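Same chain as my last thread, 119 residues:
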Amino acid sequence: MLTKIRGLFFVGLGYMLSPLSWWNDVFFNLPIAYLFGYIVSWIFPDLFVAATIAGYWLSNVLGILMMQMGGTDIFWGERPKNIKKDMAISLGSSTVYTLIIIALVYFHILALPDFLFTN
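reply #2:
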């Protein structure tokens, strides 16, 4: 029973971070990405935008991975997990999602806020 409760917790939190909940980007992923970019920019000032994108991507990967771990706990209980396979799926799906967002920004379908480009 405790495994299923832990699984539900991971699925819920992972959903909030995952690309499946695009509406939560404003509350979770973008602040995490901005904070990550800000911290990296202390050491490498020119990498703020790149680090922000990397932080956004990492928060999505973490969300997908947490959902997979939680789903495994809920549906399969104590069954052995294949971490390499889970990571490959997480990295692949998050990378595709990030590339779609980058393409939308590149083609001016989505606009980035001005505060991302101020020092």
